[in-house]
Design goal:
α4 packs antiparallel against α11, α6 runs antiparallel to α8 and α13 crosses α14. The strands form 4 sheets. Strands 1, 3, 4, 6, 8, 9 and 11 form a 7-stranded mixed sheet that branches. This protein is of the alpha+beta class and about 575 residues long.
Length: about 575
């Protein structure tokens, strides 16, 4: 039995050795031909180092390498272990060629690159998002390690990776031509993106300042943080930050992500007016908003709750807000459609990125463009949504929401403009003020909804008779309306007022056989520097009071208008 056990162990040992030899044999060198860019699919092995203490010489002697990896990008998810990589490159050219090993995950904390010198010792180059790059590393948003290979030679390459932002390992081997093309492409695309974002940001800030809209400021903050997030993920931040401050890169990225979700939730709540439409939804989004702060605090001190909070913040929050945005779109909330499209693209990428960082989804070749693309789409649609909302807000700020006539604020602005124009041209300016008779009793008898319908029908008549350039019909307040008529004298204004009064008088009450009646006051003046438009408003108000005093359903012209025209009963 003992000899049988020993025999079994020996067989198992030989089997393990055979598998190791077979795996080593399977790792074929990557043949570098005339192509300008190569990936390592089928030519890469990896080894995890939970202790993070292994040296390059120790891993060379290890037999427990995994591979070859047949994916274009190795993605091991979040791990505290260091990961070692091994691959072989063969120069098939007839002359010594220079290549660049491009590690294209710029948020990796440290990337160490080992090659053997002619004397047989390993030479080291290093770079990373939190450590200064060594002298030979090419300055770039990615980590570029230069490598010269003699004609026909095969060289072994070892790399050691540590990353707290997910162990994603995209590597390409580039020629000088590919490197130049990559630099030109990056400058063109990212230059255009950041330029566009800067212009949009200027609009957000200026519109927020002049329109006094907090929504614009929060979208501006959201846009800045989203752009910074893209800059970190694309590798631009580590190029700009001084070497002495690279150690805080991870903390900076954490603050950016936390602020991004905080500002995004706040903008979401304000833009869709959640508190007005659904207090429960607003409360849920507020919880998500402040959860982003909790996430930042938990991330500083790793604990078991971090994964659960991350899942809620980066998966449940985006899915809930996307569904909510489309629900409001379905309900017909103004501009919710543009908002929903912009929101879903950015937050779909957020959900994908969470699962990719945790190793549950692969890292496609185009992955590095997902965040810039989502940011561009989000900016376009959210900008359109905000612009349309601002235009609507400006319109509603000067429009009566019931009758859709100009409101008192708009009337005061136009009155001043027309006053100044008539002053320059020495032409008359007439003002008609109309007030419905017995409107309070009508409201009390038939209800406010019926009263609102009557106001709208009166507004339609007034709007019909103010079609010239400069004419303005406005709801002055309650059941009072005003008509501003530049270049109209008192007699013409009186004739127009009488026409309007008769048209309205022919309307029948919906709930009784009585006709609708209005009282009208008129004031006309030729503006002078000594007078103010407020005097015209005061005169027309007195004329309206006189019409009411005379028994209603009549038109009275102010005596200051310069003509003597009795009211018509």
């Amino acid at each position: 039995m003992v000899s049988l056990g020993k025999q079994t162990l020996l067989q198992l040992a030989f089997f393990i050795m055979a598998v190791s030899v077979a795996n080593a044999a399977l790792l074929t060198p990557l043949l570098l031909d005339d192509k300008h860019s190569h990936n390592l699919s089928g030519h890469l092995e990896f080894l995890t180092d939970p202790t993070c203490q292994l040296t390059v010489q120790q891993v060379v002697d290890r037999s427990d390498w995994s591979g070859p990896v047949h994916k274009q990008v190795l993605n091991l998810g979040i791990t505290k272990s260091a990961v070692w990589l091994r691959f072989f490159l063969t120069n098939q050219a007839n002359t010594t060629q220079k290549f660049y090993v491009s590690f294209e995950y710029p948020v990796a904390n440290s990337v160490t690159f080992y090659t053997k010198s002619p004397s047989g010792f390993f030479e080291e180059q290093h770079a990373g998002s939190t450590i200064p790059a060594s002298g030979h590393v090419v300055p770039d948003r990615h980590f570029l390690f230069p490598l010269s290979i003699e004609a026909g030679k095969t060289v072994p390459i070892y790399m050691r990776i540590q990353s707290t932002s997910g162990m994603t390992i995209p590597i390409r081997i580039l020629s000088d031509h590919a490197l130049d093309w990559k630099a030109s492409r990056d400058h063109a695309i990212y230059g255009a993106l950041f330029g566009f974002f800067a212009l949009v940001l200027i609009y957000f800030i200026t519109s927020g300042y002049f329109l006094h809209r907090a929504t614009s400021f929060w979208l501006a903050l959201y846009s800045v943080l989203f752009s910074l997030h893209m800059a970190v993920r694309a590798g631009f931040i580590h190029l700009l930050v001084p070497d002495k401050l690279l150690g805080i890169n991870s903390l900076l990225h954490l603050i950016i992500i936390s602020g991004l979700y905080f500002a995004g939730a706040k903008f979401f709540r304000l833009f869709l007016s959640l508190k007005d439409h659904s207090k429960l939804s607003d409360t849920i989004m507020m919880v998500f908003q402040y959860l982003s702060i909790l996430f930042a605090l938990l991330a500083l001190f790793p604990n078991p709750f971090l994964t659960a909070v991350s899942l809620v913040l980066f998966v449940i929050n985006p899915i809930f807000s996307i569904c909510l945005a489309f629900y409001f779109w379905h309900k017909g909330i103004s501009n919710a459609g543009y908002f929903a499209v912009g929101w879903i693209v950015a937050h779909f990428v957020s959900v994908y990125d969470f699962f990719r960082i945790n190793g549950m989804l692969s890292y496609p070749e185009y992955n590095e463009w997902l965040i810039p693309f989502s940011l561009l789409i989000a900016f376009i649609f959210l900008s359109v949504a905000l612009i349309k909302q601002n235009i609507a807000a400006q319109f509603m700020a000067k429009t009566d929401p019931l009758t859709h006539l100009a409101n008192r604020r708009k009337f005061n602005e136009v009155l001043q403009l027309e006053w100044n124009r008539c002053l320059r041209q020495n032409t008359p300016l007439s003002l008609i003020m109309a007030d419905m008779d017995y409107f309070k009793q009508y409201n009390d008898s038939f209800g406010h909804r019926t009263g609102d319908q009557l106001l709208c029908s009166i507004a339609e008549v007034l709007n019909r008779y103010t079609q010239r350039p400069g004419d303005l019909a406005a709801r002055y307040g309650g059941d009072e309306f005003v008509l501003l008529l530049p270049n109209i004298d008192a007699k013409s204004a009186f004739n127009l007022a009488e026409t309007i009064r008769r048209v309205i008088n022919n309307k029948k009450n919906q709930r009784s056989d009585n006709n609708v009646t209005i009282s009208i006051g008129i004031a006309t003046t030729i503006p002078t520097k000594e007078n103010k438009p407020e005097k015209l408003v005061l005169d027309v108000d007195k004329a309206l009071y006189e019409a009411k005093h005379r028994g209603k359903n009549c038109t009275v012209v102010s005596t200051s208008s310069g003509i003597n025209m009795p009211g018509i009963l």
